[in-house]
Design goal:
- The chain is of the alpha/beta class.
- Helices cover 43% and strands 14% of the residues.
- It has a 5-stranded parallel sheet, sandwiched between helices.
- Helix 1 (14-26) packs across helix 6 (166-175) and helix 6 (166-175) crosses helix 8.
- The protein is globular and about 40 Å long.
- The protein binds zinc ion (ZN).
- Zinc ion binds next to helix 8.
Protein backbone atom coordinates (compact mmCIF):
# COMPACT_ATOMS: atom_id res chain seq x y z
CA UNK A 1 0.00 0.00 0.00
CA UNK A 2 1.21 3.51 -0.82
CA UNK A 3 1.21 5.72 2.26
CA UNK A 4 -0.25 8.72 0.41
CA UNK A 5 -3.57 10.06 -0.82
CA UNK A 6 -4.95 9.34 -4.29
CA UNK A 7 -7.54 11.37 -6.16
CA UNK A 8 -9.92 9.33 -8.33
CA UNK A 9 -11.58 11.01 -11.32
CA UNK A 10 -15.00 9.57 -10.67
CA UNK A 11 -18.00 9.45 -13.00
CA UNK A 12 -19.89 6.80 -11.05
CA UNK A 13 -19.71 4.33 -13.93
CA UNK A 14 -18.41 0.78 -13.87
CA UNK A 15 -14.81 1.68 -14.65
CA UNK A 16 -14.25 4.59 -12.30
CA UNK A 17 -16.13 2.84 -9.46
CA UNK A 18 -13.84 -0.15 -9.84
CA UNK A 19 -10.92 2.31 -9.76
CA UNK A 20 -12.29 3.93 -6.59
CA UNK A 21 -12.19 0.63 -4.73
CA UNK A 22 -8.84 -0.30 -6.31
CA UNK A 23 -7.47 3.01 -4.96
CA UNK A 24 -8.91 2.26 -1.51
CA UNK A 25 -6.89 -0.95 -1.52
CA UNK A 26 -3.71 0.63 -2.87
CA UNK A 27 -3.53 3.98 -1.02
CA UNK A 28 -3.73 5.14 2.56
CA UNK A 29 -6.41 7.69 1.74
CA UNK A 30 -8.69 8.31 -1.24
CA UNK A 31 -10.79 11.22 -2.45
CA UNK A 32 -12.92 11.52 -5.57
CA UNK A 33 -13.89 14.24 -8.01
CA UNK A 34 -16.86 14.25 -10.40
CA UNK A 35 -17.76 16.69 -13.14
CA UNK A 36 -20.98 18.21 -14.42
CA UNK A 37 -20.05 18.94 -18.01
CA UNK A 38 -23.50 19.30 -19.53
CA UNK A 39 -24.10 15.55 -19.85
CA UNK A 40 -27.72 14.70 -20.62
CA UNK A 41 -27.78 12.35 -17.67
CA UNK A 42 -26.64 14.52 -14.78
CA UNK A 43 -28.09 11.92 -12.47
CA UNK A 44 -24.78 10.09 -12.83
CA UNK A 45 -23.20 12.81 -10.68
CA UNK A 46 -25.71 12.20 -7.85
CA UNK A 47 -25.14 8.46 -8.09
CA UNK A 48 -21.38 9.04 -7.99
CA UNK A 49 -21.85 11.03 -4.76
CA UNK A 50 -23.90 8.20 -3.24
CA UNK A 51 -21.23 5.63 -4.08
CA UNK A 52 -18.45 7.84 -2.72
CA UNK A 53 -20.35 8.33 0.55
CA UNK A 54 -20.90 4.60 0.92
CA UNK A 55 -17.22 4.01 0.19
CA UNK A 56 -16.33 6.50 2.92
CA UNK A 57 -14.47 8.70 0.47
CA UNK A 58 -14.36 12.51 0.43
CA UNK A 59 -16.13 13.63 -2.74
CA UNK A 60 -16.67 16.82 -4.64
CA UNK A 61 -18.49 17.64 -7.89
CA UNK A 62 -17.24 20.49 -10.05
CA UNK A 63 -19.09 22.35 -12.82
CA UNK A 64 -17.39 22.34 -16.21
CA UNK A 65 -20.30 22.97 -18.60
CA UNK A 66 -17.97 24.49 -21.19
CA UNK A 67 -16.61 21.01 -22.00
CA UNK A 68 -20.01 19.85 -23.21
CA UNK A 69 -20.68 22.87 -25.37
CA UNK A 70 -17.30 23.24 -27.09
CA UNK A 71 -17.53 20.03 -29.08
CA UNK A 72 -20.69 18.70 -30.72
CA UNK A 73 -21.46 15.21 -29.38
CA UNK A 74 -24.32 12.86 -28.53
CA UNK A 75 -23.69 12.74 -24.78
CA UNK A 76 -24.40 16.44 -24.28
CA UNK A 77 -26.66 17.26 -27.25
CA UNK A 78 -30.13 15.76 -26.76
CA UNK A 79 -31.02 16.41 -30.42
CA UNK A 80 -28.29 14.10 -31.77
CA UNK A 81 -28.94 10.44 -32.50
CA UNK A 82 -26.29 8.33 -30.82
CA UNK A 83 -24.00 6.25 -33.03
CA UNK A 84 -24.26 2.54 -32.25
CA UNK A 85 -20.82 1.98 -33.76
CA UNK A 86 -17.99 3.91 -35.39
CA UNK A 87 -19.38 5.40 -38.62
CA UNK A 88 -17.65 4.56 -41.91
CA UNK A 89 -14.65 6.81 -42.49
CA UNK A 90 -14.55 8.17 -38.92
CA UNK A 91 -12.26 7.29 -36.04
CA UNK A 92 -14.79 7.36 -33.21
CA UNK A 93 -18.56 7.42 -32.62
CA UNK A 94 -20.41 10.69 -31.89
CA UNK A 95 -20.51 9.78 -28.18
CA UNK A 96 -16.91 11.00 -28.05
CA UNK A 97 -16.74 14.26 -26.04
CA UNK A 98 -13.70 16.02 -27.49
CA UNK A 99 -11.19 17.06 -24.86
CA UNK A 100 -13.13 15.54 -21.97
CA UNK A 101 -10.30 13.56 -20.40
CA UNK A 102 -7.81 16.32 -21.15
CA UNK A 103 -9.96 18.89 -19.32
CA UNK A 104 -10.99 16.58 -16.48
CA UNK A 105 -7.47 15.36 -15.73
CA UNK A 106 -6.03 18.87 -15.98
CA UNK A 107 -8.63 20.25 -13.56
CA UNK A 108 -8.14 17.22 -11.31
CA UNK A 109 -4.39 17.85 -11.27
CA UNK A 110 -4.84 21.47 -10.17
CA UNK A 111 -7.39 20.38 -7.54
CA UNK A 112 -4.96 17.69 -6.33
CA UNK A 113 -1.98 20.06 -6.28
CA UNK A 114 -3.89 22.48 -4.05
CA UNK A 115 -4.23 19.66 -1.54
CA UNK A 116 -0.72 18.28 -1.81
CA UNK A 117 -1.89 15.17 -3.69
CA UNK A 118 0.19 13.79 -6.54
CA UNK A 119 -1.48 10.45 -7.29
CA UNK A 120 -4.40 10.68 -9.73
CA UNK A 121 -6.41 7.63 -10.78
CA UNK A 122 -8.47 7.40 -13.97
CA UNK A 123 -10.49 4.50 -15.35
CA UNK A 124 -9.50 4.85 -19.00
CA UNK A 125 -8.77 1.67 -20.95
CA UNK A 126 -7.07 1.23 -24.28
CA UNK A 127 -8.37 -2.32 -24.57
CA UNK A 128 -12.05 -1.35 -24.81
CA UNK A 129 -11.55 2.26 -25.79
CA UNK A 130 -14.40 2.54 -28.32
CA UNK A 131 -12.15 4.61 -30.58
CA UNK A 132 -11.78 7.43 -28.04
CA UNK A 133 -8.24 8.75 -28.51
CA UNK A 134 -8.02 10.18 -24.99
CA UNK A 135 -8.39 6.73 -23.44
CA UNK A 136 -5.09 5.55 -24.89
CA UNK A 137 -1.93 4.93 -22.91
CA UNK A 138 0.15 7.29 -25.09
CA UNK A 139 -2.21 10.17 -24.27
CA UNK A 140 -2.06 9.52 -20.52
CA UNK A 141 1.75 9.28 -20.52
CA UNK A 142 2.01 12.43 -22.60
CA UNK A 143 -0.42 14.30 -20.34
CA UNK A 144 1.49 13.17 -17.24
CA UNK A 145 4.62 14.84 -18.64
CA UNK A 146 2.64 17.93 -19.65
CA UNK A 147 1.03 18.31 -16.20
CA UNK A 148 4.43 17.98 -14.54
CA UNK A 149 5.87 20.64 -16.81
CA UNK A 150 2.82 22.87 -16.46
CA UNK A 151 2.92 22.93 -12.67
CA UNK A 152 6.52 21.97 -11.93
CA UNK A 153 5.09 18.92 -10.19
CA UNK A 154 5.55 15.17 -10.02
CA UNK A 155 2.14 13.75 -10.65
CA UNK A 156 1.60 10.02 -11.08
CA UNK A 157 -1.37 9.20 -13.31
CA UNK A 158 -2.58 5.69 -12.48
CA UNK A 159 -4.61 3.71 -15.00
CA UNK A 160 -5.38 0.32 -13.42
CA UNK A 161 -7.77 -0.64 -16.24
CA UNK A 162 -5.57 0.39 -19.18
CA UNK A 163 -4.86 -3.14 -20.42
CA UNK A 164 -7.97 -4.88 -19.07
CA UNK A 165 -10.98 -5.76 -21.18
CA UNK A 166 -14.47 -5.42 -19.69
CA UNK A 167 -14.52 -9.03 -18.48
CA UNK A 168 -11.23 -8.47 -16.64
CA UNK A 169 -12.59 -5.23 -15.17
CA UNK A 170 -15.54 -7.20 -13.76
CA UNK A 171 -13.03 -9.73 -12.41
CA UNK A 172 -11.17 -6.92 -10.66
CA UNK A 173 -14.42 -5.60 -9.13
CA UNK A 174 -15.12 -9.11 -7.86
CA UNK A 175 -11.61 -9.42 -6.43
CA UNK A 176 -12.17 -6.09 -4.64
CA UNK A 177 -15.45 -7.40 -3.20
CA UNK A 178 -17.67 -4.91 -5.03
CA UNK A 179 -19.05 -6.85 -7.99
CA UNK A 180 -22.66 -6.52 -6.77
CA UNK A 181 -22.27 -2.83 -5.95
CA UNK A 182 -20.76 -2.09 -9.37
CA UNK A 183 -23.43 -4.15 -11.11
CA UNK A 184 -26.39 -2.65 -9.27
CA UNK A 185 -25.48 0.93 -8.47
CA UNK A 186 -23.20 2.31 -11.17
CA UNK A 187 -24.36 4.13 -14.26
CA UNK A 188 -22.58 3.39 -17.53
CA UNK A 189 -25.58 3.50 -19.87
CA UNK A 190 -25.67 6.29 -22.48
CA UNK A 191 -29.44 6.44 -21.93
CA UNK A 192 -29.01 7.22 -18.24
CA UNK A 193 -30.37 4.00 -16.72
CA UNK A 194 -28.35 2.68 -13.73
CA UNK A 195 -27.40 -0.95 -13.13
CA UNK A 196 -27.91 -3.21 -16.13
CA UNK A 197 -29.01 -0.11 -18.09
CA UNK A 198 -31.10 0.11 -21.26
CA UNK A 199 -29.38 -2.98 -22.64
CA UNK A 200 -28.94 -1.75 -26.20
CA UNK A 201 -26.69 1.35 -26.23
CA UNK A 202 -22.98 0.71 -27.01
CA UNK A 203 -21.95 1.21 -23.37
CA UNK A 204 -24.55 -1.30 -22.13
CA UNK A 205 -23.54 -3.83 -24.78
CA UNK A 206 -19.86 -3.62 -23.88
CA UNK A 207 -20.66 -3.84 -20.17
CA UNK A 208 -23.05 -6.79 -20.54
CA UNK A 209 -20.81 -8.76 -22.88
CA UNK A 210 -17.93 -8.33 -20.42
CA UNK A 211 -20.08 -9.43 -17.49
CA UNK A 212 -21.35 -12.50 -19.34
CA UNK A 213 -17.81 -13.45 -20.35
CA UNK A 214 -16.58 -13.05 -16.77
CA UNK A 215 -19.47 -14.98 -15.21
CA UNK A 216 -19.01 -17.82 -17.73
CA UNK A 217 -15.32 -18.04 -16.84
CA UNK A 218 -16.05 -18.77 -13.16
ZN1 LIG B 1 -27.68 1.73 -22.24
Amino acid sequence: MINETALVVFSGGQDSTTCLFWAKREFKDVCALSFRYGQKHEREVELAGDIARRAGVEWEALDLPLVGTLGHNALTDASMVMDERVPEGQVCPNTFVPGRNLFFLSVAAVWARERGIRHIVTGVSQTDFSGYPDCRDAFIKSLNVTLDLAMDAQFVLHTPLMWLDKAQTWALADELGVLDLVRRDTLTCYNGIPGDGCGHCPACKLRREGLEKYLLSL
